[in-house]
Amino acid sequence: MTNTSSRLLRLLSLLQTHRFWPGAELADRLEISARTLRRDVDRLRELGYPVDAQRGVEGGYQLAAGAAMPPLLLDDEEAVALALGLRLAAQGTVAGIEETAVRALAKVVQVMPPRLRRRVDALRAAITSAVWTTGGGPLVDAGTLALIAQACRDEERLRFVYAAPDGQTTPRHVEPHRLVSLGRRWYLVAYDLRRDDWRTFRVDRIQSVRSTEVRFEPRRLPAADAVAFVRASVGTLPASYVVEALVRAPAEVVRASVGPWASVEDVGDGECRLQMRSDNLDWPTLALGAVRAEFEVLSPPELKDHLNEWAARFSRATASTSSRPPA
Question: CA torsion sign, 137 to 143 to 144 to 149?
Fold first, then answer.
């Protein structure tokens, strides 16, 4: 790296640590003249970094918000915090941003040195027990998600062991197409080379995944997009429960509350029909409660018993609290 390039990186790092730098102080930190500083600022602008300049005796420089996001420089602590936050977001702690978090995590992990990856893994292991997910779905290792995301992006074949619902495992050799977050689960859409057909894989059932580093020519997916393909595939799979409820609220309100994890159909008169597929009844119970509207359970009958059980438990909790003498 040339001396100029090193100086530009240091200048950028300094600009990212303070909102405003007096010109004289910034030049002194870099051990350069005011004229060289102006030239370096111009080079950063050419690279897409929006650097504002204030002229005069009290003049200086600051990094402003731009029309596009330029590359950022992060120190070790910032990189670890960013990767850890993306891992937690990817595992569903913040609904609706899982796929974006995985794409960002794949970029961060790719350039992160091994010593920092070990720190992130250690921190993640220490706080895993404190993570609460609203979906009730299985947690997926974010490192696995990042590796698969990188293979999708780089169009590299993957090998892994896949576990069926009955526990039987089979080796798979696939051309990964896209990761999809749906129904509080992660799915990989890929072309299975051994079966010569497209398949949907639950990521929580993928084991010992590794990239072969062999590139492939992308095939045309037999669906409008990966989400549509997963919806069609999952719809043909057996689920423990298919929940239906008539919700007395507009369809757009219910959709905004439950997100993509339920089918919502407008039936008129400000009401809608909600349908969810789930392996347990906890997630539908939470989702219906979060809508904050009156509803009628259409199926299955077990959901009514489940709701009564929750209601009784909450009622007991309230009663026991109110009956305690004041401290």
Answer: positive
Give dist(CA 158, CA 137) in Å, integer. 24
pTM of the predicted structure, to 2 decimals: 0.49
Q: Where are the alpha helices (DSSP H) in 209-293?
A: 226-235, 251-258, 282-291
pLDDT tens, residue by residue, 21-55: 899 999 999 999 999 999 999 998 888 888 999 88
Q: Classify domain 3-63 by CATH number.
A: 1.10.10.10
CA–CA dist 87, 93 (Å, integer): 9
Give me the sheet containing 21-22, strands edge to edge. Answer: 21-22, 60-63, 51-54
The answer as to CATH 3.30.70 being correct for domain 242-320 is yes
Alpha carbon distance 232, 173 (integer Å) = 22
**Residue 269 is encoded by which pair of tokens?**
């008169």
Residue 172 · residue 192 · CB < 8 Å: yes
